[in-house]
Design a protein that fits this description.
The chain has seven helices and four strands, in the order H-H-H-H-H-H-E-E-E-E-H. The chain is of the alpha+beta class. It has a four-stranded antiparallel sheet with strand order 1-2-3-4. A hairpin with a 5-residue loop joins strand 3 and strand 4.
Length: 210
């Protein structure tokens, strides 16, 4: 096992005996505060994605496309095109909300509490985080089956009391299915396996950038 230089953070490989113990140990702090440059880069990438959607839904720009004409960049300033941009931004907001719910659910059901979820979401209070994601943090009894929605697919994580181990059944966005054996020693290990499967079978536009 190696450490990140100067940080003392363990970085075991998945094949190491201590990987799952390290995986389940929530690091503090979980992130470094984004810089202004990070924020500007995010703005640029969001704008690129939103503009691409606006170009696909704008009636004016579609008319130019149907006429076989390349639209002049100045057309982006047309009021109706800007309304299409606004509509695309709304879709981006909905996408962010869905992704935030997935991230909060994975974090919460793997050990994070509502105070930590709230801190990650811009510093909102614990009660506000609980209202925003009421199912993110749950008590996991041995008889409970826990659903997960991620990368366009779904999975349910179960506990097998006979084996005293966790397993999952998953259906990915591409309709691939997998049912693991009850071999995962912890809920965190099972949810990581399910998440890995769902990401591997996400639709191309839902996969994270390389």
């Amino acid at each position: 096992m190696s450490d990140v230089a100067g940080a003392g953070i363990p970085t075991p490989d998945k094949t190491d005996d201590d990987f799952w113990a390290a995986f389940s140990n929530l690091l503090e702090p979980p992130w470094n505060e984004p810089t202004q440059d990070d924020a500007f880069t995010m703005d640029e990438r969001v704008h690129e994605t939103v503009r691409a959607l606006a170009e696909r839904i704008s009636t004016r720009l579609l008319a130019y496309q149907a006429a076989g004409k390349e639209h002049d960049p100045v057309l982006m300033a047309a009021p109706d095109v800007q309304l299409a941009v606004l509509r695309a931004l709304y879709e981006a907001k909905r996408s962010v909300d869905r992704l935030a719910e997935s991230a909060a659910t994975v974090a919460g059901r793997s050990g994070a509490n509502y105070a930590q979820l709230g801190a990650a979401w811009g510093g909102i209070k614990r009660q506000s985080a609980r209202l925003k994601w009421p199912h993110a943090v749950v008590r996991k009894s041995s008889a409970e089956s826990i659903p997960l929605h991620y990368a366009g697919g779904t999975a349910v994580v179960h506990h097998d009391p006979d084996a005293d181990a966790w397993w999952y059944a998953a259906t990915a966005a591409d309709q691939a299915e997998e049912e693991s054996q009850p071999v995962h020693g912890t809920y965190a290990e099972a949810i990581a396996g399910a998440t890995e499967f769902l990401l591997a079978h996400a639709l191309p536009d839902r996969r994270p950038p390389a």
